[in-house]
Each structure stands twice: as C-alpha cells, then as structure tokens.
Amino acid sequence: MPIAVPTSPQAFARSDDPKGTKFDKISDAVDDINVAKLLASNPDNAYDESAFDAEKDKAGFRQFVDENESSRRFYIEQHTKQTVEFNIEARRKVFENARATMGVWEAMELLNTLVDASDPDTSATQIQHLLQTAEAMRKDGKPEWMQVTGLVHDLGKLLYFFGSDGQWDVVGDTFVVGCEIPKEKIVYSDTFGENPDLNHPVYSTKYGMYKPGCGLDNVMISWGHDEYLYLICKEQSSLPKAALHMIRYHSFYPWHRERAYTYLENEDDKQALKDVLAFNPYDLYSKSDSLPDPVALRPYYEGLIAKFFPEKINW
Ligand SMILES: [Fe+2]
Ligand SMILES: [Fe+2]
C-alpha cells in the first residue's frame, strides 16, 4: 500500500544532494543544450505552431557549449549505465515500493521544496517552470488537456527523491535501449563506449530486440522522468493519447528532433511525432517568460487537474 506523504517533505531529501541543487544544475544544463539546438534548427514541422514566443528574442538564450564539462560527465554516466538490464529492473522496481499518495498540486509543491533553483537570479523554480509551460499554452488558446499536460510534464522528476540511483536515470535526453545507438543523432554520442550493450550480439544490431516498424509503443526508451510519469498518467489519469505522447517523448530528442529510429515507427507514431513537436516549444521557450505566481494560479489549475486526475495519485 502506498504511504501518505510524511509531514516533512524533507523525509524525501537525498543525503547525497540535500537541497537538490546538483540535480537542478544538471537539469538546467540538459535543457540549455536543447534550447540552443532548437534555436539553431528553427523547426518548421510543428503542425500547430506556437504563437506565444513569436516576439521573443530567441537569441537571448544561453548558447550550447559543446565542451560543457558537467553535461559531458553527466552523459558519460547516463550513456554507460542505461542498459537493457537496468531498464527492465527499473520498470520492475518502480511501483514495487511504497512511496507516496498525493494529488498533483501536492506533488508540484513537493518537487519545488526538494529542488533549490541553483541559479536563483535567472532560473525558475520547478513549480514556476511547470506553470510557465502551462500558461504559455493557455495564452495560445490550447485545450485544457494540453494545459494540464504542460503543468505536470516534469513531475516525474520526483523519481530523483524516490530512490533513483542518481541523476542519470532521471533527466537527460532519452534513447532506445536494446538496439543500435544512432550515434550521429544523439547528444554526446561519443560517450557510449563503456555501455556493455554495445558488445551484445543482439542489442548492438540495427533493430536489436525489435522488429522493423514495430511502433514506439513497443520499444523500451531509456528510463527517466518521462517514462515514469507516462506510466503513472497512463494508469491514473484520463489524459488523451496525445498528452501521453507529449509526456513520454518530450526528452526523446534523437527521435523527435533528429529523426533517428524511423525504422521502428508505425503509423501511430506519425501522430505521436506531431504531438510532441507541438508540445516542445512550450517546454523550452517559456523559460524566459515572467515568473508566474503559484498562489494566484492555483485555483484555476486545481480546477483543470480535477478534470483529468483523481484526488490522490499513487507515486
Ligand atoms: Fe522534462
Ligand atoms: Fe520541462
């Protein structure tokens, strides 16, 4: 049975990162890279172009620096440890242990308490980032289900405080495990050298343990906050399929931006791609928007949350 949230959220704090600042720094560094790449790519394939950012000075975002040492160290660890074996085990273990039963807004507040914005002058807190994403969608007149998706999309980061091994199994771009790594399409792709799956007789082949055209529903994407929240929302919310695509694939840049793994796609994935591309700018560009006030916005979003989620969720 799930447990109730302890009276002190600090019961979830990690001893190796008591204020969550290391986590915040890596999380921001990962996003910075993707913002810079989005600016560079100037995508024209989003089926429903975002309007809220049209006037924004996109060049104002920090530029992606390829020699960023902390990002590099982070990706070395992620690319080494995300194996098929690890991924099977992570999925087996995730709902095995009791963690917490709480509503969406409580979860947002808990995440906010546990992660101190490492750069308080420029970066939004976790709750502000979620609200910025949702508010940008609201400004553009996006449907309620999409606004709620923006609101919750990073709540899977609670995984960091629910027994993850480190940051490498929570944040960062994701990729498919169990088949060849499409190296030219993955960030820091030279850092897979120590991953044992690269020497596996099946996992190292193009299709690996999959069949061509099997569909992304049937592949194992590297474990992290996307997949964790996707599993929760699939079981415990009434969010539509498009929302689940946005949640599950939002860090899957090798696929949705670089167009790797097209040989694993099926017909449904064409729509999934449109969904995640429609979501992506709201996640990345809304970071420079003015900081929203959680107290003022809470009543509106509590109303939306109630339409798609039960009062309490098992985390
Ligand atoms: Fe995310
Ligand atoms: Fe995000």
Automatic annotation (TrEMBL):
Keywords: Cytoplasm, Iron, Metal-binding, Oxidoreductase
Main location: cytoplasm
InterPro entries, per the entry: Inositol_oxygenase
Binding of substrate, residues: R62, D116, A117, S118, K157, G172, D173, H250, S251
Pfam families the record matches: MIOX (PF05153)
GO cellular component, one term: cytoplasm
Top EC class for this record: oxidoreductase
Coiled coil: none
Cofactor(s) of this protein: Fe cation
Gene Ontology molecular function terms on file: inositol oxygenase activity; iron ion binding
Protein name: Inositol oxygenase
Biological source species: Kwoniella dejecticola CBS 10117
